[in-house]
Design brief:
Layout (H helix, E strand, L loop, with lengths): L2 H7 L2 H13 L2 E2 H7 L5 H13 L3 E9 L2 E8 L9 H23 L22 H18 L22
Antiparallel strand pairs: 1-3, 2-3
């Protein structure tokens, strides 16, 4: 995986933009902005540009509207990568450092309260065959899909859920 691709994917705001496009299949920046009203318009455009430059999303349609070009975005077809252990290691280390930074900002921010915010950390060692592991991953994906369409509303806040499955040999 290319470094710019990995770095672009690791940003929480860009992950939310990707989720909107995945759910809608195609979306304009205005439609993305409607789904994510807490992101300032200038930031939204900047994040979309990063996703375009990293070839995570692509422009599927351009149309003139009110004197300007409106672009419609979709998830780009997956590019083949040479998946090496070094690249996987780099991706995992970047993700873990990103999480570490998020927790640092949280605990050094205004009024951190893990109980109020339902901060949760869990770990379990499970005995599973490869087939059972694939079933587990599928069930987890289905659970995440259930909540991805949620829009900002009273009482809702962004909650980042991260799962790391590590082999123990």
């Amino acid at each position: 995986m290319k470094k710019d691709y990995m770095e672009a994917c690791m940003n929480a705001t860009r992950q939310r933009i990707i989720q909107v496009i995945m759910i809608k299949k195609e979306a304009t920046s205005a439609e993305i902005g409607e789904e994510l009203p807490d992101i300032p318009r200038a930031s939204l455009y900047r994040h979309i540009k990063v996703l375009l430059d990293a070839e995570i999303i692509t422009v599927v349609k351009e149309e003139f509207k009110r004197g300007s070009m409106e672009k419609t975005y979709a998830i780009a077809p997956q590019r083949p990568y040479e998946d090496t252990n070094e690249e996987y290691n780099s991706l995992i280390q970047s993700a873990l450092m990103g999480l570490q930074g998020e927790f640092y900002r949280y605990f050094n921010g205004e009024n951190p309260d893990p109980q109020r915010d339902l901060l949760t950390l869990g770990s379990a060692s499970l005995m599973m065959s490869d087939e059972e592991m694939m079933e587990f991953i599928k069930a987890y994906g289905e659970l995440i899909q259930r909540y991805m369409p949620n829009k900002p509303a009273e009482g809702r806040k962004v909650r980042k859920v991260t799962i790391v499955i590590s082999p123990n040999e």
